[in-house]
From TrEMBL, chain B:
SUPFAM superfamilies in UniProt: alpha/beta-Hydrolases, Peripheral subunit-binding domain of 2-oxo acid dehydrogenase complex, Single hybrid motif
Gene Ontology terms, MF aspect: acetyltransferase activity; lipoic acid binding
Name of the protein in question: Acetoin dehydrogenase dihydrolipoyllysine-residue acetyltransferase subunit
Organism: Kumtagia ephedrae
Cofactor(s) required, per the database record: (R)-lipoate
Ranges where the Peripheral subunit-binding (PSBD) domain occurs: 132-169
GO cellular component, as recorded: cytoplasm
Length: 330, 462
């Protein structure tokens, strides 16, 4: 299996194409995903390869589209439903939270809902308050859903293929700034398991648990820290639910310090869960300082590009927090 | 005229100092030049000699509190002088942080003390709960018998951090090395070389007062100094070390730990490799071992490396024999087959896989193994544990990443004809790790080349 450089968006498109080639039950739904190629050009020319029956443009109704996708999944299809922006999930919450997440449970396991929903998420594109949020923690709060946040093209393809094969609803949050990021992606079919974090950088003095775009910021910060003699480990959480506790616990037991970095609003966010999970775990007795969170500011995302940057953690914020934590000043 | 003993200035910028330990108790005779007590500053620990000969009395300088430079901390009365009534109040601490620096040493004989030793004992001790310390610092303090109340934390608002505890433990260890025998004990000065009492008195034991084997730990040899701790491999147990020890003639204390699901610890559950490491650390803590030489075979080698890389114990050296955890492959046919084996044919067949020359497997060795496994408990426990460690021909844990930061002498021994774990896994370790590859040996060099392995062990357990 050879590997080449693909962008994150291309990797997702390739995963969908492979799944559609292999399994005729797999089809795509979403607004402007056909001839237009999708709001972020992720579906691209798939409509030409697979036709409008399998790459279906839906009306501007997230509730309607999500409902049809959930229904199709219950009848045995493998739909992949694209939201133009993850923010519009608000319109489809009934179908996701009350229907897709609960149907297997309420029908005693008689049905499953193998739907995949794709959510372009996050800030940094100047799309303002209603098109820039990071809402993954909302979905992580719902038993019955799986919630993933791949951070690399390799993982985007492998985790999407794992999601398509999964018998339960999987929500995939794709940070919009990652779409153009390139990285090595193997050809052909492979999967990256849901529920398994990845240690992106080994370190001994501090664990930085990060998600999505923050993984890359944390890795950049780790390089700066290394130049100062601070050896940080970076854990890419990859899955919000079910969370890979073992990997994080093992890392914190090794380093004795934990910094959580995530773009969603800090209060009640993904890092809050990681932080509480560690405080309750066997890793507690290994902590040599407070657990620190860096998350989004308690505000809607501003339109002004400077303010937009200021309200989410940036590399220097991570460097400063890590430095204070390791030197015992925090 | 009695001689005043003052707290001297031992550092340029020093306004106050802290007595970390008295080496002579109140009422005892001292000779000019004897080490009286130890001062601890931010930078160093320093021993202070007696300025005169006589009897030490009126000790007012308490351990573990800040005392102004120049303050009298005790008096020495020459022969014929009568000590003043010992009613002097202890010098108040500069910041009032009372607390013991070390537990009182036990009285080793029945002699009544001439003067009560209470003045050199802690005057009240603050409950640990009221102290600002990180969870790790608290855990280390428990394990290394360091009193948190006596420490000045370097973290925000005086929070005690792991490094503060480690520094205190190191100071205690250095004091032990520099002050061989003089320990205040109620009415009794222990004999020179009374290692257990001394170790206890400085607050960080190299060996417990009485070395009592526990359910999962066996003292195979008694002796003085830093103990050697042995950790057996998967499917093995304490008894497997005896052939090697016949060739290892050091009179050092040697402790063997049975891993969960093995030997005497057959009924202890474990959910994976981390649990084995935690078990070893807790056995060491239970034995009050803060400093040790570690040696392990196969799975026990990986556990020893993980323990050495951790903070639970200060490893002075590390010997790994055919260690697991260095690479992905393992012969799970063996681990599964051996784990299940409990009759002679099955056992002999799998044991032959362990060695290059089956002749080294004496009937006695095989029969002892057979007897231990005959009731089925060990096979059942190891069949449960095995797949959590090794399955799909894969080792499910790795310690390879830990070697870079192992600062003690490390030797790795492997057999080139090992049929359980490929010997090539020992390649590519950091340069400071000594690798000894015996081309013709299998997975048990300590059995097949016990003299050579014992010699390599002796080279690092100094």
């Amino acid at each position: 299996m050879t590997t080449r450089e693909l962008s994150y968006a291309q990797a997702i498109q390739e995963a969908m194409a492979i799944a559609m080639e292999a399994d005729e039950r797999v089809f795509l739904m979403g607004e402007d995903i056909g001839v237009y190629g999708g709001a972020f050009q992720v579906t691209g020319d798939l409509v030409e390869r697979f036709g409008p029956e399998r790459v279906r443009d839906t009306p501007i109704s997230e509730l309607g589209g999500a409902g049809v996708a959930v229904g199709a999944a219950v009848t045995g299809m493998r739909p992949i439903f694209e939201f133009q922006f993850s923010d519009f999930a608000t319109l489809a919450m009934e179908q996701i939270v009350n229907q897709a997440a609960k149907m297997r449970y309420m029908l005693g396991g008689e049905v499953s809902v193998p739907v995949v929903m794709r959510f372009p998420a996050g800030s940094g594109t100047g799309a303002a308050a209603q098109h820039s949020q990071s809402l993954e923690a909302w979905f992580g709060h719902v038993p019955g859903l799986k919630v993933i946040q791949p951070a690399t093209p390799h993982d985007a393809k492998g985790m999407l293929l794992a999601a398509i094969a999964d018998p339960d609803p999987v929500m995939i949050f794709e940070h919009k700034l990652l779409y153009k990021m390139k990285g090595p992606v193997p050809e052909g079919h492979y999967t990256v398991p849901i529920g398994k974090a990845e240690v992106r950088r080994q370190g001994s003095q501090l664990t930085i648990v990060a998600t999505a775009i923050m993984v890359h910021k944390a890795l950049e910060a780790a390089e700066t820290l290394a130049a100062e003699g601070i050896d940080a480990e970076v854990v890419d959480l990859r899955t919000i639910r079910p969370m890979d506790k073992d990997t994080v616990i093992a890392s914190v037991k090794k380093t004795s310090r934990l910094l959580c970095v995530y773009e969603g609003v800090k209060t009640l966010g993904v890092g809050a869960e990681v932080s509480a999970m560690i405080a309750e775990s066997e890793a507690f007795d290994y902590l040599d300082g407070p657990i620190v969170r860096l998350g989004g500011a308690e505000t809607p995302i501003p339109y002004n590009p400077e303010l937009e940057k200021a309200v989410v953690p940036q590399v220097p914020d991570i460097v400063t927090a890590a430095r204070e934590l390791v030197s015992g000043r925090r | 005229m009695p001689t005043e003993v003052i707290l001297p200035k031992v550092d340029m910028d020093m306004a106050t100092g802290r007595i970390s330990r008295w080496f002579v108790e109140e009422g005892a005779a001292v000779k000019k030049g004897d080490v009286l007590f130890e001062i601890e500053t931010d930078k160093a620990a320093m021993e202070i000699d007696a300025p005169a000969s006589g009897t030490l009395a009126n000790v007012t300088g308490r351990e573990g509190v800040d005392i102004p430079v120049g303050e009298a901390v005790a008096w020495i009365y020459a022969e014929g002088e009568t000590p003043a009534k010992a009613d002097a109040a202890p010098i108040p601490a500069v910041p009032s942080v009372p607390g013991p620096a070390a537990p009182p040493a036990p009285a080793a004989n029945g002699a009544a003390p001439a003067v009560s030793a209470s003045q050199i004992e802690p005057v009240g001790s603050e409950p640990v709960a009221g102290i600002r310390a990180t969870p790790l610092a608290r855990r280390l303090a428990r394990q290394r018998n360091v009193d948190l109340a006596a420490l000045d934390g370097t973290g925000p608002k005086g929070r005690v951090q792991a490094k503060d505890v480690e520094r205190a433990a190191t100071v205690a260890a250095e004091a032990r090395e520099r002050a061989p025998a003089v320990v205040p004990a109620a009415g009794h000065t222990p004999a020179r070389g009374d290692v257990e009492v001394r170790a206890r008195a400085v607050g960080q034991a190299t060996a417990p007062i009485t070395r009592q084997s526990s359910a999962a730990s066996t003292w195979l040899r008694q002796g003085e100094g830093t103990p050697l701790v042995l950790i057996h491999g998967f499917g093995s147990e304490t008894a497997s070390w005896r052939p090697l020890l016949t060739a290892f003639d050091r009179a050092m204390p040697i402790l063997s730990i049975d891993l969960p699901g093995h030997g005497a610890a057959v009924d202890l559950p474990a959910g994976g490799f981390d649990d084995l490491v935690a078990h070893v650390e807790s056995e060491l803590a239970a034995q009050n071992i803060g400093v040790a030489h570690l040696a392990g075979h196969s799975l026990g080698g990986a556990a020893a490396a993980a323990v050495a890389a951790g903070v639970a114990v200060e490893a002075r050296s590390l010997l790994l024999i055919a260690p697991a955890g260095l690479g992905p492959e393992i012969n799970t046919g063996f681990t599964e087959g051996f784990a299940a084996a409990h009759d002679e044919t099955a056992l002999r067949t799998w044991m032959r896989e362990l060695v290059a020359d089956p002749a080294v497997l004496s009937d006695g060795f095989v029969n002892a193994t057979l007897r231990a496994r005959a009731d089925g408990r060990l096979p059942a426990a190891q069949t449960r544990l095995g797949p959590l460690l090794f399955s799909q021909a894969t080792q499910r844990f790795s310690v390879r990443g830990l070697f870079e930061r192992l600062a003690m002498p490390v030797k790795v021994i492997a057999g080139g004809a090992d049929r359980i774990i490929p010997s090539r896994h020992v390649q590519g370790l950091p340069g400071h790790v000594g690798v000894h590859l015996f081309a013709g040996l299998g997975h048990m060099p300590q059995l097949e080349a016990r003299e050579a392995v014992a010699r390599l062990l002796a080279e690092i357990v100094r």
